[in-house]
3-dehydroquinate synthase (Constantimarinum furrinae), 357 residues
Amino acid sequence: MPNRKNVKLPHSIHFNSGSWEALNTYLSTSGFSKVFVLTDENTNTHCLPIFQRNCTLKNFEVLSMKAGESHKTIDSCVTLWQQLSEKGADRKSLLINLGGGVVTDLGGFVAATFKRGIHCIHIPTSLLAMVDASVGGKNGVDLGSLKNQIGVIKQPDLVLVTTEFLKTLPEDHFISGLAEMLKHGLIHSEAYWQKVSNYDKHTGDDLDTLILESILIKHSVVSADPNEENLRKTLNYGHTLGHAIESYCLDHSERRALLHGEAIAIGMILATFISSVLLSFPKKKLEEISRVIFNYFPKQEFNRSDIENVIKLLIYDKKNTNGKVHFVLLEAIGSHKINCEVPNSLIYSAFEYYENF
């Protein structure tokens, strides 16, 4: 990849030093009637001051929601819709979503539906949101513990990625974002997989370059297939079982709720094992991928009952058609196959592999 200073970004995505200039230019020329900034409890404390320091517009109103996946609900949307209405928002208003994946997903949905759609900007503050949630125009909320069941696809006006915000991020949330970068490597190329695999989280060398490349990988996929008819499904690698695991843990108080990346990391190991059986994905690469993922994500325990319930949740996956559960699998790193059917017996074998690695 060329030096990031020479990379041409899509017109709607701005990176680091160019982000604040793009925001201030946009705000000064667009004539918005009102500007609102959505935060959660964490970004209100840690990220809003950075925004205020860099944004030349001082006349905006702050909206806040509770932090965490459990608040990514339609009830949170109703509260925000009511606040927007009470504060005089109209169709020429702008909502700036300052936060991680929950804030950008939910805030994008609120903006896309309020008065049939108002303008919005995403300023992702977590690694996960920078490389995944904020790019591509997917907006929505969970239905109970079921992930992203309600939503729309609508692109934000701008995505402003400023890696300064990563300094505010707890380490487990930072590592969670690496799961999506590893996924981008698996579906895109051996070269990018190796770069992320060899990233040293202690030195942080070249992190900005890796983030930018991950953004460009996702954007290229989304641009080719904006409505997820074909290629965009590959971005769900590891997510079929990963989302089911995430939902299962959210819905069972005796288990620790997993961060999105933690669940997807498990899903990628399971999907790669299944790929090795059904599509002859190389066994040595399966072992390499497993080692890399376990280096970042400690093993979780699942008993037979847990696995049975995870499998039951697969019927809610958004890629399914005609009642059939569809997986994204790999023939090799960078070579994928969509709409794969997987027998339950093989899913049990995949969990056995995960447990015994």
Notes: The chain has a mean pLDDT of 94. The chain is about 50% helix and 15% strand. Residues 4-168 form a domain with the Rossmann fold fold (CATH 3.40.50.1970). The CA atoms of residues 142 and 226 lie 21 Å apart.
